[in-house]
# Entry
Amino acid sequence: MPIKDPAALLARLLKREESAWLEFKTNNADPQTIGKTLSACANAAILAGQERAYIVWGIADKARSRVGTTLKLQDVKIGGENLQNWLSRLVAPRLMMEFCDFEDAGKSYAILAVEPSYERPVKFSGCEYIRLGENVKPLADFPDHERALWLATGRYRFESAIALPHQTEDQLFALLDTSVYYKLRGDEVPPRQSEIIRTFRQRGFLRDDNEGGHDITNLGALLFASDIRHFPSISGKSIRVIQYSGKDKAKSVGETEGTKGYAVGFPGLLRFITNKLPTQERIVDGVRRALPTYSEIAIREIVANALIHQDFTISGSCPVIEIYDDRLEIANPGNSLIGVDRMIDDRRSRNEKLAAAMRELGLCEERGSGIDKAIIDIEERSLPAPEFFFSEDAMKVVIFGPKAFRQLSKADKVWACFCHCVVRYIRRDYMTNTTLRKRFSLSDDEYQAASSVIADTRQAGKIVEADPEQGRRNARYVPYWAAP
# Structure
């Protein structure tokens, strides 16, 4: 993240309270001291949730007076090797470092800015350091600090990283459609841009860059980008929609790639998808209407899940929605954090901040209830249960179009029965032959057909009797993982 205005940055740093991630020096150019201080300040930045740590030369430490420095970072050599290369070899993990020598008001200054990787604590020459007061100490000597640092590295998320640094207000409002935030919340857009910026900082969409500008985070760009291609870190995460003619990939009808942030483009994306899906005419209140044959609720929730739970660290891969004549396939990079049999009831998220923002904006259901709601709506429409497929680096969900009970394979019926049993369980209820008949739109005379599906599902080990001593005809069932 390049320093655009070092004089402005210096002025902002001098106004900050003393922090472990900010060190002032005058002329100390000892490479070993610089390396240890770099490790300590970088680790302190991780603990404080700061994007950067700084070592500044030319400032009297205690008085914080501008005295200038004779040090030139670009001129420091260690055995013929320049300081930047030398530190790059001895600091692990590899960090983004910037060395800046500059003049301000007739005096010379130098700033070393470091961006912690958040992968693990930062080492210099094989040892991790931490600052305690004004002293730099080995981290291993302070186990409580070491434990806290490891916890802090685990909390870092892609959403918090910077997508574009040092943007002016004009650039900021050109790059982000900030009005969408208020529109989706049903609020009035504030009359002053400063109010919008303050709100966006509070929500983690922006950061103060300490140089008089604004850093746009990946979270802010992902949600509100007017054009996602302007942000290199997320430009490959736009959404692709491909439509095929038939039931395979033999003939593509068209391919569209979205360019808007997820919050900006999500309502339009859903309209685009549903307009590509078949409809059926029905009489509603005496009026003939074309109604969708797919569950729009399921499409909304599963598409939202694909966006939220993707693994942003996988490059060259983006969410893809494929439309066939008989199904919709929604894929995202990154394997699922949840096993297939717990997709409906488990509660985990790979990108918590993105998930929270999508919920706040009404773009998906409350925490963990989206898949539940999708399955329930699919059941009420007597549609086949969606299927979940995992691979090492991707996840795919398949939403099917209408199929009669007799068109379903044995595996389809078993999976639908299991999903129905899970839905009943999370509603604090049981699956029975009666509820399963209703799920499949079977008549009372088709009791035996439902019994056969239950028997196959029990044999597959997916469901068990809630009360084994109860008669089979009145048996109630729970998922196998909820066995009494």
